[in-house]
């Protein structure tokens, strides 16, 4: 893979025990020299306008819901059926495999689950970590309300807030987890920088998210909806933020069968370790978007919101189509 070559990555076979029967899994460590300055893109050391320096891709693609207000309203409605629809893309086995590199083995770890939503990933975290030590942060109060209903999460802490501006002090948490949320952040690099800041030295961040589809139609709908990052973008964000020992792992639903012919649906888990206490070495300017700000033009907002939501619907059609195909096409053949 081109990105793997760019990043000097080595493909490795995951040890037994990381594999689960229900899905495909590939993981590889991203070998980098010791310093973030060795990244192919020079480390930023002066404050710059984030629209120029931080955005990973041109803003030309609309990505109508990759904005805070839009994400807020998207989840205002989606939260009603989120737990039901989520099962099409993300199963418990997949979640546990995604979380495995986060190394959540000790009950006393202090964990922040950013974009924790209705608590599906948090349910995986509290299997091993004491719920009292876990905080779910999300910008949607409606999603958080769903999480609060879950018995296993009763003792967790719940916080309404923004992934790009986490209301915790520097060097606060042992683990930072964020699943399926980075796709909605207007400035993912800023969010990863925050992950670095809130972690203690030696703490680990684990960001779980989608991958840019390989099929043109899926790419089109992705680009209208939200940001589906590329492998090299994830790795770059981690590296620029200052993380070390960056590990990239992909996981797909069981009907994936190893070929991304339909450009779908593969997720990844990216982990990195904070090597020194304090703030991230990456300096960036002020936030581009604030969810508190009123919407300027209601009609434009509504149009964007509806188009983005329609594009998202494609990602409900595909799992159903692929599930049916998986039943029909003889086992062993790519679908
Ligand atoms: C696909 S859901 C994932 C929820 C949960 N992590 C899970 O695994 O099911 C994405 C969540 O990210 C939240 N989100 C989007 N943008 C955010 C931001 N800037 N800050 C905090 N949460 C955000 C949404 O409100 C939503 O609950």
From TrEMBL:
Q: GO: which molecular function terms? A: 2-methyl-6-phytyl-1,4-benzoquinone methyltransferase activity
Asked whether the keyword Repeat is assigned, the reply is no
Mind listing the UniProt keywords for this protein, alphabetically? Membrane, Methyltransferase, S-adenosyl-L-methionine, Transferase, Transmembrane, Transmembrane helix
Domain MPBQ/MBSQ family SAM-binding methyltransferase profile stretches: 63-271
PROSITE patterns in the cross-refs: SAM_MPBQ_MSBQ_MT
Q: Name one GO biological process term.
A: methylation
Q: Which residues cross the membrane?
A: 301-324
Looking at the record, which segments are called SAM motif III?
197-210
SAM motif I as annotated region, ranges: 111-120
The segment annotated SAM motif II runs over 156-169
| InterPro entries named in the record | Methyltransf_11 (IPR013216), MPBQ/MSBQ_MT (IPR044649), SAM-dependent_MTases_sf (IPR029063), SAM_MPBQ_MSBQ_MT (IPR031164)
Family of the protein in this entry: Belongs to the class I-like SAM-binding methyltransferase superfamily. MPBQ/MBSQ MT family.
The identity of this protein, by name, is MPBQ/MBSQ family SAM-binding methyltransferase profile domain-containing protein
């Amino acid at each position: 893979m081109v990105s793997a070559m760019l990043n000097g990555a080595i493909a490795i076979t995951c040890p037994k025990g990381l594999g689960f029967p229900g899905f495909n899994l590939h993981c590889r460590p991203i070998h980098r020299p010791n310093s973030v300055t060795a990244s192919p893109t020079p480390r930023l050391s002066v404050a710059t306008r984030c629209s120029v320096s931080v955005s990973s891709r041109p803003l030309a693609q609309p990505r109508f819901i990759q904005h805070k207000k839009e994400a807020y309203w998207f989840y205002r409605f989606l939260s009603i059926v989120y737990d039901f629809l989520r099962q099409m893309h993300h199963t418990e086995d997949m979640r546990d495999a995604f979380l495995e590199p986060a190394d959540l083995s000790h009950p006393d770890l202090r964990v922040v689950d950013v974009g924790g939503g209705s608590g599906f990933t948090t349910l995986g975290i509290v299997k091993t970590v004491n719920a009292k030590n876990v905080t779910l942060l999300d910008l949607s109060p409606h999603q958080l309300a769903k999480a609060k209903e879950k018995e296993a999460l009763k003792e967790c802490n719940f916080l309404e807030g923004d992934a790009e501006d986490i209301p915790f002090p520097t060097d606060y948490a042992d683990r930072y987890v964020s699943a399926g949320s980075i796709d909605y952040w207007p400035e993912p690099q800023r969010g990863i920088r925050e992950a670095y800041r809130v972690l203690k030295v030696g703490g680990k961040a684990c960001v779980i998210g989608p991958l840019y589809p390989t099929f043109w139609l899926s790419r089109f709908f992705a680009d209208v909806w939200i940001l589906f990052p590329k492998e090299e973008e994830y790795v770059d964000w981690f590296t620029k933020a200052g993380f070390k020992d960056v590990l990239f792992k992909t996981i797909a639903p069981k009907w994936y069968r190893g070929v991304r012919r339909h450009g779908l649906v593969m997720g990844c888990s990216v982990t990195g370790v904070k090597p020194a206490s304090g703030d991230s070495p990456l300096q960036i300017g002020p936030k581009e978007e604030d969810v508190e700000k009123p919407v300027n033009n209601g009609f434009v907002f509504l149009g964007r919101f509806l188009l983005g939501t329609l594009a998202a619907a494609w990602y409900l059609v595909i799992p159903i189509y692929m599930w049916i195909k998986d039943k029909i096409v003889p086992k062993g053949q790519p679908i």
